[in-house]
Amino acid sequence: SGKRISKELKQKVLELFQKGLGYRATNSMLGLKLNTVKNWYLLFRSGDTSWVESNYRENVSYTHLRAHET
Fold first, then answer.
1. Distance of CA 31 to the CA centre of its chain
2. Would you state the pLDDT for residue 56?
């Protein structure tokens, strides 16, 4: 089961991306799953930062990003 990632942590990830860090460097600093950070990085590069606000869990696929997980 995926663990809930706090909004604060996701904002930290976003800040690191904005400073020019890649997903590998960001992941090694914060200790998240590499695939999770990579997905966020690809979204960030495409201009999508909605993942920061979403209740995404690590084991939920991105096809369900818009569904509100509680």
1. 12
2. 53
